[in-house]
Amino acid sequence: MRSTRKRTSTVVGAVGALALAGTLVGCGSSSHTAAPLKNAVDASDAKHPEWSKYTFTVGDNGGDGSEALAKLTGVFDNAPYKVKFARFTYGPPLVQAAASGDIDLGSVGDVPPITGAAKEYGFKVVAVNRSLTPDQAVENIIVPKGSTLKTAADLKGRRIAVPQGSSAHGLALNALKSVGLTPKDAKLVFLDPAAAATAFNTGKVDAWSIWNPQSAIAVKNGARILVKGLPPIDQTSSYYVASDASLKDETKRAALTDVLKRLSREFAWGVKNPATYAQALSQEQGIPLADAKASLAAYSNRVTPVVPADIALEQKLADAFLEAGQITKKVDVPSIVDNLLPAGYDSSKLKVTS
Questions:
Q1: Alpha-carbon distances of 36 from 72, 77, 78, 336, 354, rounded to whole Å
Q2: 208 and 244 in one domain?
Q3: Is the backbone peptide bond immediately before 232 cis, with ω within 30 degrees of 0?
Q4: Where in the cell is it found (predicted)?
Q5: pTM to 2 decimals?
Q6: What's the confidence (pLDDT) of residue 184?
Protein backbone atom coordinates (compact mmCIF):
# COMPACT_ATOMS: atom_id res chain seq x y z
CA MET A 1 0.00 0.00 0.00
CA ARG A 2 1.52 3.28 -1.04
CA SER A 3 1.43 6.51 0.91
CA THR A 4 -0.36 9.32 -0.88
CA ARG A 5 0.75 12.04 1.52
CA LYS A 6 4.07 13.77 1.94
CA ARG A 7 5.81 13.85 5.30
CA THR A 8 3.72 16.16 7.40
CA SER A 9 6.42 17.30 9.78
CA THR A 10 9.97 16.86 10.98
CA VAL A 11 10.98 14.74 13.94
CA VAL A 12 13.37 16.58 16.22
CA GLY A 13 14.75 16.49 19.74
CA ALA A 14 16.14 13.98 22.20
CA VAL A 15 14.57 11.00 23.91
CA GLY A 16 11.16 11.93 25.32
CA ALA A 17 10.91 15.32 23.54
CA LEU A 18 9.40 15.65 20.08
CA ALA A 19 7.03 17.93 18.23
CA LEU A 20 4.95 17.25 15.14
CA ALA A 21 3.37 20.53 14.06
CA GLY A 22 -0.38 20.72 14.41
CA THR A 23 -0.96 17.24 15.81
CA LEU A 24 0.92 16.90 19.09
CA VAL A 25 0.62 18.17 22.64
CA GLY A 26 3.94 18.89 24.40
CA CYS A 27 5.29 16.11 26.58
CA GLY A 28 6.72 16.94 29.98
CA SER A 29 9.67 15.16 31.49
CA SER A 30 10.55 14.07 34.98
CA SER A 31 13.19 12.03 36.72
CA HIS A 32 12.51 8.72 38.45
CA THR A 33 14.22 6.94 41.28
CA ALA A 34 13.00 3.39 40.67
CA ALA A 35 13.43 1.27 37.58
CA PRO A 36 11.60 -2.00 38.29
CA LEU A 37 11.74 -3.21 34.67
CA LYS A 38 15.23 -2.08 33.75
CA ASN A 39 16.43 -5.66 33.42
CA ALA A 40 13.05 -7.33 32.93
CA VAL A 41 13.57 -8.25 29.28
CA ASP A 42 14.84 -11.35 27.61
CA ALA A 43 18.62 -11.30 27.46
CA SER A 44 18.47 -12.14 23.76
CA ASP A 45 16.45 -8.98 23.11
CA ALA A 46 19.13 -6.75 24.61
CA LYS A 47 22.15 -8.17 22.75
CA HIS A 48 21.80 -6.63 19.33
CA PRO A 49 24.57 -4.10 18.65
CA GLU A 50 23.29 -3.71 15.09
CA TRP A 51 20.23 -1.98 16.51
CA SER A 52 22.31 0.87 17.95
CA LYS A 53 21.82 2.94 14.77
CA TYR A 54 18.05 3.17 15.33
CA THR A 55 15.99 5.83 17.06
CA PHE A 56 12.34 4.80 17.23
CA THR A 57 9.53 7.29 17.67
CA VAL A 58 6.52 5.94 19.55
CA GLY A 59 3.23 7.80 19.18
CA ASP A 60 0.56 7.77 21.84
CA ASN A 61 -3.05 8.78 21.38
CA GLY A 62 -3.97 11.41 23.95
CA GLY A 63 -1.43 10.66 26.68
CA ASP A 64 -1.68 6.96 27.55
CA GLY A 65 1.14 7.16 30.09
CA SER A 66 3.69 5.46 27.84
CA GLU A 67 6.44 8.05 28.27
CA ALA A 68 5.97 8.49 32.01
CA LEU A 69 5.83 4.71 32.54
CA ALA A 70 8.98 4.24 30.47
CA LYS A 71 10.82 6.60 32.81
CA LEU A 72 9.32 5.08 35.95
CA THR A 73 10.02 1.50 34.98
CA GLY A 74 13.29 1.97 33.11
CA VAL A 75 12.05 -0.52 30.55
CA PHE A 76 14.09 1.08 27.76
CA ASP A 77 17.16 1.88 29.87
CA ASN A 78 19.13 -1.11 28.60
CA ALA A 79 17.73 -1.10 25.07
CA PRO A 80 20.34 -1.09 22.28
CA TYR A 81 18.45 1.69 20.48
CA LYS A 82 16.98 5.07 21.37
CA VAL A 83 13.29 5.85 21.85
CA LYS A 84 11.36 9.11 21.49
CA PHE A 85 7.73 9.71 22.37
CA ALA A 86 5.22 11.80 20.44
CA ARG A 87 1.76 12.68 21.71
CA PHE A 88 -1.23 13.07 19.42
CA THR A 89 -4.60 14.55 20.31
CA TYR A 90 -6.41 11.72 18.51
CA GLY A 91 -5.88 8.80 16.16
CA PRO A 92 -6.13 9.89 12.49
CA PRO A 93 -3.04 12.16 12.56
CA LEU A 94 -1.11 9.37 14.29
CA VAL A 95 -1.90 6.90 11.51
CA GLN A 96 -0.88 9.48 8.92
CA ALA A 97 2.39 10.03 10.80
CA ALA A 98 3.02 6.28 10.84
CA ALA A 99 2.44 6.11 7.10
CA SER A 100 4.77 9.03 6.39
CA GLY A 101 7.50 7.67 8.64
CA ASP A 102 7.32 10.46 11.22
CA ILE A 103 6.66 7.79 13.85
CA ASP A 104 7.51 4.09 13.84
CA LEU A 105 4.83 2.72 16.14
CA GLY A 106 1.67 4.00 17.80
CA SER A 107 -1.63 2.98 19.38
CA VAL A 108 -5.03 4.11 18.05
CA GLY A 109 -8.71 3.18 18.30
CA ASP A 110 -10.62 0.95 15.92
CA VAL A 111 -11.54 3.53 13.26
CA PRO A 112 -8.25 5.32 12.35
CA PRO A 113 -6.79 2.22 10.65
CA ILE A 114 -9.93 2.06 8.51
CA THR A 115 -9.98 5.70 7.47
CA GLY A 116 -6.21 5.60 6.95
CA ALA A 117 -6.46 2.53 4.73
CA ALA A 118 -9.26 4.16 2.73
CA LYS A 119 -6.82 7.00 1.98
CA GLU A 120 -4.13 4.45 1.04
CA TYR A 121 -1.73 5.43 3.78
CA GLY A 122 1.29 3.12 4.05
CA PHE A 123 1.00 1.39 7.43
CA LYS A 124 0.03 -1.92 9.00
CA VAL A 125 -1.85 -3.00 12.13
CA VAL A 126 0.71 -5.01 14.12
CA ALA A 127 -0.87 -5.78 17.53
CA VAL A 128 -3.94 -5.29 19.71
CA ASN A 129 -4.33 -3.44 23.00
CA ARG A 130 -7.08 -5.66 24.40
CA SER A 131 -9.09 -4.28 27.30
CA LEU A 132 -8.87 -6.10 30.63
CA THR A 133 -12.22 -4.52 31.57
CA PRO A 134 -14.35 -5.11 28.44
CA ASP A 135 -17.54 -4.43 30.41
CA GLN A 136 -16.45 -0.83 31.00
CA ALA A 137 -16.78 1.68 28.19
CA VAL A 138 -13.66 3.58 27.19
CA GLU A 139 -15.77 6.16 25.32
CA ASN A 140 -19.37 7.33 25.34
CA ILE A 141 -21.87 9.63 23.72
CA ILE A 142 -22.65 12.21 26.36
CA VAL A 143 -25.19 15.02 26.65
CA PRO A 144 -25.07 18.21 28.74
CA LYS A 145 -26.68 18.59 32.12
CA GLY A 146 -30.40 19.23 31.70
CA SER A 147 -30.60 17.68 28.23
CA THR A 148 -33.96 16.17 27.31
CA LEU A 149 -32.35 13.44 25.17
CA LYS A 150 -32.94 9.98 26.70
CA THR A 151 -31.97 7.38 24.07
CA ALA A 152 -29.94 7.07 20.88
CA ALA A 153 -33.17 7.52 18.90
CA ASP A 154 -33.42 11.04 20.30
CA LEU A 155 -30.28 11.97 18.35
CA LYS A 156 -32.38 12.33 15.21
CA GLY A 157 -31.98 15.87 13.93
CA ARG A 158 -29.43 16.70 16.65
CA ARG A 159 -25.89 18.04 16.45
CA ILE A 160 -23.28 15.53 17.58
CA ALA A 161 -19.66 16.62 18.06
CA VAL A 162 -17.35 13.93 16.69
CA PRO A 163 -13.57 13.75 16.09
CA GLN A 164 -13.63 12.74 12.42
CA GLY A 165 -12.09 9.38 11.63
CA SER A 166 -11.68 8.45 15.30
CA SER A 167 -13.07 5.56 17.31
CA ALA A 168 -15.70 8.00 18.63
CA HIS A 169 -16.80 8.52 15.03
CA GLY A 170 -17.43 4.79 14.84
CA LEU A 171 -19.41 4.86 18.08
CA ALA A 172 -21.63 7.67 16.76
CA LEU A 173 -22.17 5.87 13.47
CA ASN A 174 -23.07 2.55 15.10
CA ALA A 175 -25.23 4.17 17.76
CA LEU A 176 -27.32 5.82 15.05
CA LYS A 177 -27.44 2.61 13.04
CA SER A 178 -28.63 0.64 16.10
CA VAL A 179 -31.86 2.66 16.13
CA GLY A 180 -32.36 2.74 12.37
CA LEU A 181 -30.74 6.14 11.76
CA THR A 182 -27.94 7.22 9.41
CA PRO A 183 -25.56 10.20 9.55
CA LYS A 184 -28.06 11.99 7.27
CA ASP A 185 -30.65 11.80 10.06
CA ALA A 186 -28.39 13.70 12.47
CA LYS A 187 -25.78 16.41 12.12
CA LEU A 188 -22.26 15.09 12.70
CA VAL A 189 -20.16 18.13 13.60
CA PHE A 190 -16.54 17.17 12.98
CA LEU A 191 -14.35 18.80 15.63
CA ASP A 192 -11.09 17.84 17.29
CA PRO A 193 -11.40 17.03 21.02
CA ALA A 194 -10.45 20.51 22.25
CA ALA A 195 -12.84 22.33 19.92
CA ALA A 196 -15.58 19.80 20.67
CA ALA A 197 -15.20 20.39 24.40
CA THR A 198 -15.78 24.10 23.86
CA ALA A 199 -18.79 23.46 21.62
CA PHE A 200 -20.25 21.02 24.16
CA ASN A 201 -19.74 23.33 27.13
CA THR A 202 -21.25 26.32 25.33
CA GLY A 203 -24.34 24.52 24.01
CA LYS A 204 -23.36 24.63 20.35
CA VAL A 205 -23.86 20.87 20.02
CA ASP A 206 -26.47 18.57 21.55
CA ALA A 207 -24.20 15.61 22.19
CA TRP A 208 -20.54 14.65 22.11
CA SER A 209 -19.04 11.29 21.16
CA ILE A 210 -15.76 11.14 23.04
CA TRP A 211 -13.42 8.88 24.99
CA ASN A 212 -12.00 9.02 28.50
CA PRO A 213 -10.74 11.01 30.30
CA GLN A 214 -12.80 13.71 28.56
CA SER A 215 -16.01 11.72 28.97
CA ALA A 216 -15.37 10.94 32.64
CA ILE A 217 -14.45 14.55 33.42
CA ALA A 218 -17.56 15.89 31.67
CA VAL A 219 -19.78 13.46 33.57
CA LYS A 220 -18.18 14.49 36.85
CA ASN A 221 -19.05 18.06 35.94
CA GLY A 222 -22.73 17.26 35.31
CA ALA A 223 -22.93 15.71 31.84
CA ARG A 224 -24.83 12.47 31.37
CA ILE A 225 -24.01 9.34 29.36
CA LEU A 226 -26.56 8.79 26.62
CA VAL A 227 -24.89 5.82 24.88
CA LYS A 228 -22.12 3.69 26.34
CA GLY A 229 -19.33 2.60 24.04
CA LEU A 230 -19.72 -1.13 24.56
CA PRO A 231 -20.24 -4.11 22.25
CA PRO A 232 -22.04 -4.67 19.98
CA ILE A 233 -21.96 -1.01 18.92
CA ASP A 234 -18.36 -0.29 19.93
CA GLN A 235 -15.07 -2.07 20.47
CA THR A 236 -13.12 -1.72 23.70
CA SER A 237 -9.80 -2.69 22.10
CA SER A 238 -7.31 -0.45 20.35
CA TYR A 239 -4.63 -1.24 17.80
CA TYR A 240 -0.92 -0.71 17.33
CA VAL A 241 0.09 0.53 13.89
CA ALA A 242 3.56 0.69 12.36
CA SER A 243 5.04 2.18 9.22
CA ASP A 244 5.46 0.03 6.14
CA ALA A 245 9.02 1.30 5.79
CA SER A 246 10.02 -0.02 9.22
CA LEU A 247 8.27 -3.34 8.72
CA LYS A 248 9.90 -4.05 5.35
CA ASP A 249 13.43 -3.75 6.78
CA GLU A 250 14.11 -7.11 8.48
CA THR A 251 16.64 -5.76 10.98
CA LYS A 252 14.52 -2.76 11.87
CA ARG A 253 11.45 -5.00 12.09
CA ALA A 254 13.16 -7.21 14.67
CA ALA A 255 14.16 -4.17 16.71
CA LEU A 256 10.65 -2.70 16.45
CA THR A 257 9.25 -5.98 17.78
CA ASP A 258 11.51 -5.50 20.79
CA VAL A 259 10.13 -1.97 21.24
CA LEU A 260 6.58 -3.35 21.23
CA LYS A 261 7.45 -6.05 23.76
CA ARG A 262 8.99 -3.50 26.09
CA LEU A 263 5.94 -1.25 25.78
CA SER A 264 3.72 -4.20 26.60
CA ARG A 265 5.80 -4.84 29.73
CA GLU A 266 5.56 -1.27 30.99
CA PHE A 267 1.78 -1.24 30.54
CA ALA A 268 1.48 -4.66 32.22
CA TRP A 269 3.45 -3.22 35.13
CA GLY A 270 1.15 -0.19 35.17
CA VAL A 271 -1.93 -2.40 35.40
CA LYS A 272 -0.44 -4.18 38.41
CA ASN A 273 0.56 -0.86 40.00
CA PRO A 274 -2.60 1.23 39.45
CA ALA A 275 -1.74 4.01 41.90
CA THR A 276 1.51 4.74 40.10
CA TYR A 277 -0.13 4.34 36.70
CA ALA A 278 -2.77 6.90 37.63
CA GLN A 279 -0.01 9.32 38.61
CA ALA A 280 1.63 8.77 35.20
CA LEU A 281 -1.65 9.47 33.42
CA SER A 282 -2.24 12.57 35.53
CA GLN A 283 1.21 13.87 34.64
CA GLU A 284 0.97 13.22 30.91
CA GLN A 285 -2.60 14.44 30.45
CA GLY A 286 -2.30 17.40 32.81
CA ILE A 287 -5.43 16.38 34.72
CA PRO A 288 -6.12 15.98 38.46
CA LEU A 289 -5.12 12.65 39.94
CA ALA A 290 -8.75 11.91 40.84
CA ASP A 291 -9.74 12.25 37.18
CA ALA A 292 -6.89 9.99 36.12
CA LYS A 293 -8.03 7.35 38.60
CA ALA A 294 -11.60 7.62 37.32
CA SER A 295 -10.51 6.86 33.76
CA LEU A 296 -7.84 4.27 34.62
CA ALA A 297 -9.97 1.35 33.43
CA ALA A 298 -9.78 2.77 29.91
CA TYR A 299 -6.02 2.18 29.96
CA SER A 300 -6.04 -1.28 31.55
CA ASN A 301 -5.09 -3.43 28.59
CA ARG A 302 -3.12 -6.48 27.59
CA VAL A 303 -1.10 -6.53 24.38
CA THR A 304 -1.66 -9.48 22.04
CA PRO A 305 -1.37 -10.32 18.34
CA VAL A 306 -4.26 -9.55 16.00
CA VAL A 307 -6.55 -12.58 15.67
CA PRO A 308 -9.29 -13.43 13.13
CA ALA A 309 -12.04 -12.15 15.44
CA ASP A 310 -10.38 -8.71 15.50
CA ILE A 311 -10.14 -8.68 11.72
CA ALA A 312 -13.81 -9.62 11.42
CA LEU A 313 -14.84 -6.77 13.76
CA GLU A 314 -12.70 -4.28 11.86
CA GLN A 315 -14.05 -5.47 8.53
CA LYS A 316 -17.63 -5.09 9.73
CA LEU A 317 -16.84 -1.56 10.90
CA ALA A 318 -15.08 -0.70 7.64
CA ASP A 319 -18.08 -1.92 5.65
CA ALA A 320 -20.41 0.17 7.85
CA PHE A 321 -18.31 3.27 7.18
CA LEU A 322 -18.46 2.64 3.45
CA GLU A 323 -22.21 1.99 3.52
CA ALA A 324 -22.79 5.23 5.45
CA GLY A 325 -20.66 7.23 3.01
CA GLN A 326 -18.04 8.07 5.64
CA ILE A 327 -15.30 6.65 3.40
CA THR A 328 -15.27 6.35 -0.39
CA LYS A 329 -13.16 3.22 -0.87
CA LYS A 330 -13.74 -0.34 0.34
CA VAL A 331 -11.13 -1.41 2.86
CA ASP A 332 -9.80 -4.97 2.90
CA VAL A 333 -8.76 -5.30 6.55
CA PRO A 334 -6.66 -8.50 6.20
CA SER A 335 -4.40 -6.62 3.77
CA ILE A 336 -3.44 -4.06 6.43
CA VAL A 337 -2.59 -6.59 9.19
CA ASP A 338 1.00 -7.69 9.82
CA ASN A 339 1.50 -9.14 13.30
CA LEU A 340 4.78 -8.33 15.01
CA LEU A 341 4.16 -10.53 18.05
CA PRO A 342 4.22 -14.35 18.03
CA ALA A 343 0.97 -16.29 18.29
CA GLY A 344 -0.16 -16.64 21.88
CA TYR A 345 1.77 -13.63 23.18
CA ASP A 346 -0.17 -12.00 26.04
CA SER A 347 1.34 -9.21 28.11
CA SER A 348 -0.99 -9.94 31.04
CA LYS A 349 0.97 -13.17 31.59
CA LEU A 350 4.36 -11.45 31.83
CA LYS A 351 6.19 -11.36 35.14
CA VAL A 352 6.44 -7.65 35.80
CA THR A 353 6.03 -7.27 39.58
CA SER A 354 8.48 -4.81 41.13
A1: 8, 11, 12, 35, 5
A2: no
A3: yes
A4: Periplasm
A5: 0.84
A6: 94
Domain match, 241 and 219 both = no
- Separation between Cα atoms, residue 209 and residue 167, nearest integer Å: 9
Q: How far apart are CA 226 and CA 167, in angstroms?
A: 17
Q: Are residues 103 and 247 in the same domain?
A: yes
| Dist CA 1 CA 113 (whole Å) | 13
Report whether 159 contacts 204 (CB < 8 A): yes
**pLDDT of 351 over the 90 cut:** no
Encode pLDDT of 292-312 as tens digits: 888 787 778 899 999 999 999
Mean pLDDT of 300-327: 95
Alpha-carbon distance 337 to 343, whole Å?
14
Q: Which of 162, 161, 173 is nearest to 326 (CA)?
A: 173
Q: How many other CB atoms are found less than 10 A from the CB of residue 124?
A: 24
348 phi/psi in degrees, rounded to 5: -70, -15
What total of structural domains would you count in the chain? 2
Rounded distance between C-alpha atoms, residue 342 and residue 332, angstroms: 23
pLDDT in tens, 104-150: 999 999 999 999 999 988 999 999 999 888 888 989 999 999 999 99
Number of CB atoms found within 10 A of residue 215's CB: 26
Q: E strands within the chain?
A: 55-61, 82-88, 105-108, 123-131, 139-143, 159-162, 187-190, 207-211, 224-228, 238-243, 301-304
Q: How many CB atoms lie within 10 A of CB 183?
A: 17
| Distance in angstroms (rounded) separating the CA atoms of residues 188 and 190 | 6
